[in-house]
Amino acid sequence: MLGARGFAARGAMQATAGVGPRGNDGKGASAMLGLVESAIERLEEAVEQETAALQSRTTFDLKEFNDRKSRGLLELTRAMRLIDGTAPDARLITRLASLRAKLDINSAVLRLHLDAVHEISSAMAEAIRAADSDGTYSRPLGGRGR
Questions:
Q1: pLDDT per position as a tens digit, 116-128
Q2: Chain-centre distance of CA 11, in angstroms?
Q3: Strands, DSSP E only, in the chain?
Q4: Which residues pair with 23 in a beta bridge?
Q5: pLDDT tens, 13-52?
Q6: Average pLDDT over all residues of the chain
């Protein structure tokens, strides 16, 4: 459900694109495609920057990138609604395929990062358990238990 800000944003996008509240009135098809392409560009930029930051292994704010990608997806979804029902544009299909490829790379890099975080946290948890243990309930080291 859209709040007041959502309706205002949608109305502004429709006014810019020449679309009425009930859909495409035939005007501004180029402007609508421009809105979609702008949304794709911003989303691609956020995805590329996050991928580069992950690959550089430097410290950065993952939440900021997540927020940017979420806003970009929302913006793209809203812009795509404006062109719903129109014939597919070859240039737009190419741009969406490019975005998909960048998202696939980003997903693979994120998976690698999460796997590394899991491995490190598991090693740390095991080290903490070993440090907390007094050996009472562990097996003898000589391998000759009773």
A1: 999 999 999 988 8
A2: 25
A3: 19-20, 23-24
A4: 20
A5: 444 444 444 444 555 778 888 999 999 999 999 999 999 9
A6: 81
Question: Token pair 């900021």 is at which residue?
Answer: 64
CA 136 – CA 14 distance, rounded (Å): 71
Q: Residue type for 29, please?
A: A
Sequence-ordered list of residues with C-beta below 8 angstroms from that of 55, at least 6 positions apart, any chain = 109
> Is 66:54 a contact under the CB 8 Å cutoff?
no
Give the Cβ contact number of residue 68 at 10 Å: 17
Cα–Cα distance between 106 and 54 in angstroms, integer? 9
| Total-model pTM | 0.67
Nearest-10 crossing angle of helices 29-56, 90-132: 30
Angle (CA) 57 62 66, round 5°: 135
Angle at which helices 29-56 and 62-82 pack, to 10 degrees? 160
For 88, the 3-state DSSP assignment is: coil
In a 13 Å sphere around the CA of 83, the CA atoms on its Cβ side amount to 19
Q: Convert the pLDDT of each residue in 68-114 to its tens digit.
A: 999 999 999 999 999 988 888 899 999 999 999 999 999 999 999 99
DSSP 8-state symbol, 62: H
